[in-house]
Each structure stands twice: as structure tokens, then as C-alpha cells.
């Protein structure tokens, strides 16, 4: 994986790289350890300072970072006994959504996530993580399977949005997303969703009707892309930074609005700097969230999910 | 038939082209000069070519409900400003301007009415209010429509016309999609019918939540219906879209709606549908 460095993260990224090299040296020569400790301390401090002041649009850029862990990067670190399941039984297999069965801390679960690609070839296969209706219909099939067999559902959200194309419209993109929301709403099993990168509108929500929703520290969740919002409001997509700030799409905003239930802290410099560490952190949060739902049974889970979404909104009565 | 771009998203050009101080109107379909009062009396359907122009919330009530009577539910819900959103002009100001322009407090009205004597839960979007966009109030009202109709054991007829989720309420608007569909799922469990009418235009978050989930889906002639707006698709695929793309007739051809109905036959047809579906429920009980 070629390292991509965004301009604003360069000072931190360079230090992290030095730490990594020094750590390799210290592994064989303990004399490097004091220097390593000093450098790690400095890196963490600088990263904290720099990342505390990131603007909304910079967090959007991090959420789209080319080196960010994608769903399959988490799948291989969080789960064992992974068995991928493919196809919607209607029209096609959509590689922009992956799904399957796996063991999570020894418990069988259904896993569904958007999947972006690395590099041109894989991105074409994955359609840059933008599903067609088939992707959502595969998800529906798996939500219903999970419901039938009493398996918890863990979803991973990471999409710019559902694909806006001719074939997608011909085959009912709207219906597919609406039906996915319905299938999630009625599943009588625990559902935990995690926004790991980009949460792009309805195409993201089709994996997001969960009992609990987690968000990675530098992931975003929005009704429209900042670029799209700026284009509509000001006929000027280059004002995406202003739109991003207005839309309140960063993890702390989402927590404050009640749209997510918890933020999962990322490793120093962001999840893309250390996939293993990011996965360890998510593993802890996911497991404690999933087990917190253990007391709820069947219809109680449906009711819990209903009440969660029923309460979202701001109006004057 | 070629759809000129200037009319692609709006069927109300006739209002802009009004001449003779509202006495005459030009039809968007055939360009004929029409008597404005006669057009209004025909529920905005051109007597010459059948073109459907935009119909007000009041017009929809008169068209669909016995006596045009709606006993409104939850009309007191007003939008907040959770994001303190401003695009140069504040969201609260935008809401006030929309209320003045549309004569409605929000982008949907719900309540109880009758279709051919049968009591129903009724909902109709007000497109003139911020493009019928769905924010917290719209989502809350639609959820309450399904909840209350479920409690009172009424079928639901919901007439959508919306550009989608309301940007100015950000992520909370997106959450309304989940809220409405979850409420619909509960309503369904009571085995009560939901008839979804897709008016011009129905796109974005309204299309991609409850609008396609009717037991029966009905579209208005030539209505623009789809997930993504045509311009978004053109910009993505960098091609000109085929003629009639995302129009009601296209949706019918692709199996997404059961029928395209003109306003002249809409009420009678829906009354017949509800009669059939209620007959089954009666036999089971």
C-alpha cells in the first residue's frame, strides 16, 4: 500500500514514520529505547495538538484517506472463521458491499459492510464503495438470514453514497435502500453499526438502522457530501469547507446530536497509521457494545431500535 | 417525447408565464392558452393534452377526500434549528419565507379523512414548502401518521412530492428516513394497507425510504421519480440521459410502480384498491 500523506498531517506522519523505524532498531538493540520513548512522547503530543484543531473538512479528508482501514481490513483482524456470502439472488453480485458469517469472540455473527478498493483495478471492482441496488438487496438477504438464525448483525459503514447511475435507477436504487431500512428495522437480533470512514447519506443509512451506532474518531456521517451541499447552496463546490462546518458531520457533532452512541478513539495520527491498533480499539468497543445488548430478547431488540430512531429529530411542539 | 431541460424539474412554469392577470394560463405540455379558472377546476390537468401541473395541498384534499375534508393531526409541530444552519441566510428565516410562500407551516400535512366513505389516514407533501424536503417535522409527522393510523386501524394513503432530505437539518434529516420506515414496518404488522402515490417530483430521501414501500405504488403521469437527481447522474456518468429517464412511464416499465393514474381517476382507483384489501382483512377476521 503506497503511503498517501495529506498536507496537514505531514508533520505528524513524518514523526510516526521515524518512530516506526526507531522501534525496529530498538527491537534488536535496547540502547535505542530511551530515544524511542522520547520520540513517541513527542509524536503523541504533536498529534494530539494538531488533530485537536482539525477543521470539519480536514476530518472529511481523513475519513476518505486512501490508507484508511476498510471493512475487510477490520474483518481479518476482528473475526475468525470468516465465510463470505455473495449475491442478491435477483440480478448480480455487488462487490461494493461485502457480507458473510464470522466468529466474534467465539460468537457467530453476520457481518455486512461497504467495501472500497485500493488502487484502480480494485476500485473498479468495488465501484469506489458505491453500491448498486444489488448490494442493498444482498444486505437485505443477510439481514433476513441473521433474523432467521438468531445471529447478531455487525455492519461497517464506509461509502461516498449509493451509486447514481442509469442501471441503478432502472433496477430501483430507491426501493432497495428503503427496503433495507425496513429489513433492519424489523430484525429481531442485536445490530451494531460502526461508521469506519465515510457515511454518505441514504447509501450509508441502509447499513445503519442499528440498536447502537459507533463512529471512529475521524469518520463522518452526512445527509449530503460537503461538495454537493456547497454546489446546491452556492453553486460552488469549492466552498465545501464551509458546508462541512455547517453540516455538523464530525464524530463529536454526531454524538452531541444523538445520532451515534459512542466514539472509538483512533491511534495516533489516525486509523490509517496503524490498522492493527485501530482494530484493537474497535474490537473492544464493539464487544462491549454487543454484550450490553445481551439482556434484550427478540421483540425487545426491535422495540429498542424503534425507540432509538423514533427519538431522533428536533422540532418545536 | 423530448423533455426540455427547463421543464425537467418544474411543472409550474405556467404560473410564471401567467398573462392577463391570472385569467389565462399557458399549459406546460401543449402550450395552449387556457382559462385559469377552468384549469384550477380541473385540478390543474390540461383539458387539451392532459398535462398535470402542480396542485396545491388544498387541491389535493379536494381531489382525494370526501368533501375535501381533512381532520388534521399534529399541525402544531414546527421546525427547530438544530444545526443553527446558515447559507448566508439563516434556516429560521428560510422557514419563515417558505411558510409565507406556501401558506403551510411545514412540508407535509397529515390527518384523517374519507375516500368514498372509507376512513383513512392521509398524508400529502407540500412541494411549495422548501421543495417538500424532509426534516424533523416531516419525519415526525409521517411516523405519527403510521402510528396513529395503526392505532385507529385505518389504511394509509400518502402522496409524496419531495426533493429529498432537508439539508439544513443535516444528519437529523437522514435519520427521519429510518424513523419513518421503522414506523411503517410496525404499521404493516397490523396488516393495514399502505397506498403510496408518487407525485412530481419524488426523489432522494423520500424516494429511498417509504415512498416505494407501498403495498401498492401509484405514480402521476410524467412525474420525475428516482433516487439521484438527473444532473447528479449526468455529472457522475458524463453522459446525456436517455429520453424519459426517471419519468413515471420509465418506472412502470421497470416494475417499480403498479400504475400511472391521472388525477381524473386517482380517487376512484384508490377507493377500489382499499376495498379489495379490506375485503381480505374482513374474511380473515
Describe the overall structure:
The complex is a heterodimer of chains A (317) and B (285). Chain A is an alpha/beta fold and 317 residues long. In chain A, 50% of the residues lie in helices and 16% in strands. In chain A, strands 1, 2, 3, 4, 5, 6, 7 and 8 form an eight-stranded mixed sheet that branches. The longest helix of chain A is centred in the first third of the chain and has 20 residues. The termini of chain A are far apart. With 285 residues, chain B is α/β, with parallel strands linked by helices. Chain B has two domains: 35 residues, no CATH class; 230 residues, Alpha-Beta Complex (2-enoyl-CoA Hydratase, Chain A, domain 1). Chain B is 39% helix and 18% strand. Chain B is globular. Chains A and B meet through α7, α8, α9, α10 and α12 of A and β4, α5, α6, α7 and β10 of B. Chain A: Belongs to the AccA family. Chain A: Acetyl-CoA carboxylase is a heterohexamer composed of biotin carboxyl carrier protein (AccB), biotin carboxylase (AccC) and two subunits each of ACCase subunit alpha (AccA) and ACCase subunit beta (AccD).
Amino acid at each position: 500500500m503506497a503511503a498517501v500523506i495529506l498536507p496537514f498531517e505531514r508533520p505528524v506522519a513524518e514523526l510516526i514514520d521515524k518512530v516506526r523505524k526507531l522501534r525496529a532498531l530498538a527491537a534488536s538493540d535496547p540502547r535505542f529505547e530511551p530515544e524511542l520513548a522520547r520520540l513517541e512522547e513527542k509524536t503523541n503530543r504533536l498529534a494530539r495538538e494538531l488533530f485537536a484543531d482539525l477543521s470539519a473538512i480536514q476530518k472529511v479528508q481523513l475519513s476518505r484517506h486512501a490508507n484508511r482501514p476498510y471493512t475487510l481490513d477490520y474483518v481479518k483482524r476482528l473475526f475468525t472463521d470468516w465465510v463470505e456470502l455473495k449475491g442478491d439472488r435477483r440480478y448480480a453480485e455487488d462487490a461494493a458491499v461485502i457480507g458473510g458469517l464470522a466468529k466474534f469472540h467465539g460468537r457467530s455473527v453476520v457481518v455486512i459492510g461497504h467495501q472500497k478498493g485500493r488502487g484502480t483495478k480494485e476500485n473498479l471492482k468495488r465501484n469506489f464503495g458505491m453500491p448498486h441496488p444489488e448490494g442493498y438487496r444482498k444486505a437485505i438477504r443477510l439481514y433476513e438470514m441473521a433474523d432467521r438464525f438468531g445471529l447478531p448483525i455487525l455492519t461497517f459503514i464506509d461509502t461516498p453514497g449509493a451509486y447514481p447511475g442509469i442501471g441503478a435507477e432502472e433496477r430501483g436504487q430507491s426501493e432497495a435502500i428503503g427496503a433495507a431500512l425496513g429489513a433492519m428495522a424489523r430484525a429481531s437480533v442485536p445490530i451494531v453499526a460502526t461508521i469506519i470512514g465515510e457515511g454518505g447519506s441514504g447509501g450509508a443509512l441502509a447499513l445503519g438502522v442499528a440498536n447502537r451506532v459507533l463512529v471512529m474518531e475521524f469518520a463522518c456521517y452526512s445527509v449530503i457530501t460537503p461538495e454537493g451541499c456547497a454546489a446546491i447552496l452556492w453553486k460552488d463546490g469549492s466552498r465545501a469547507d464551509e458546508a462541512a462546518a455547517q453540516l455538523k458531520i464530525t464524530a463529536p457533532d454526531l454524538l452531541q446530536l444523538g445520532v451515534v452512541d459512542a466514539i472509538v478513539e483512533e491511534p495516533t495520527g489516525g486509523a490509517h497509521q496503524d490498522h492493527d491498533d485501530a482494530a484493537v480499539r474497535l474490537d473492544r468497543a464493539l464487544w462491549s457494545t454487543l454484550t450490553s445488548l445481551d439482556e434484550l430478547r427478540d421483540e425487545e431488540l426491535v422495540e429498542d431500535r424503534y425507540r432509538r430512531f423514533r427519538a431522533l429529530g428536533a422540532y418545536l411542539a | 417525447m423530448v423533455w426540455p431541460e427547463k421543464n425537467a424539474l418544474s411543472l409550474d412554469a405556467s404560473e410564471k408565464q401567467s398573462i392577463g392577470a391570472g385569467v389565462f394560463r399557458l399549459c406546460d405540455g401543449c402550450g395552449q392558452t387556457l382559462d385559469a379558472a377552468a384549469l384550477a377546476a380541473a385540478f390543474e390537468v390540461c383539458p387539451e393534452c392532459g398535462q398535470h401541473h402542480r396542485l396545491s395541498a388544498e387541491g389535493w384534499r379536494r381531489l382525494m377526500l370526501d368533501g375535501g375534508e381533512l381532520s388534521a393531526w399534529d399541525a402544531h409541530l414546527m421546525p427547530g434549528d438544530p444545526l443553527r444552519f446558515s447559507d448566508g441566510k439563516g434556516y429560521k428565516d428560510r422557514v419563515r419565507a417558505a411558510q409565507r410562500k406556501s401558506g403551510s407551516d411545514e412540508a407535509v400535512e397529515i390527518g384523517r379523512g374519507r375516500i368514498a366513505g372509507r376512513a383513512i389516514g392521509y398524508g400529502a407533501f407540500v412541494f411549495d414548502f422548501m421543495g417538500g424536503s424532509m426534516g424533523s417535522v416531516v419525519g415526525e409527522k409521517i411516523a405519527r401518521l403510521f402510528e396513529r393510523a395503526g392505532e385507529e386501524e385505518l389504511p394509509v394513503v400518502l402522496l409524496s412530492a419531495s426533493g429529498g432530505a432537508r439539508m439544513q437539518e443535516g444528519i437529523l434529516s437522514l435519520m427521519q428516513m429510518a424513523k419513518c420506515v421503522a414506523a411503517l414496518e410496525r404499521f404493516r404488522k397490523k396488516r393495514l394497507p399502505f397506498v403510496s402515490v408518487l407525485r412530481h417530483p419524488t426523489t432522494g430521501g423520500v424516494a429511498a425510504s417509504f415512498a416505494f414501500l407501498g403495498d401498492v405504488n401509484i405514480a402521476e403521469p410524467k412525474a420525475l421519480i428516482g433516487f439521484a437527481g438527473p444532473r447528479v447522474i449526468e455529472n457522475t456518468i458524463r453522459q446525456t440521459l436517455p429520453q424519459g429517464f426517471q419519468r413515471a412511464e420509465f418506472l412502470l416499465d421497470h416494475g417499480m410502480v403498479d400504475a400511472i393514474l391521472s388525477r381524473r381517476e386517482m380517487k376512484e382507483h384508490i377507493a377500489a384498491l382499499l376495498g379489495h384489501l379490506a375485503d381480505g382483512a374482513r374474511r380473515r377476521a
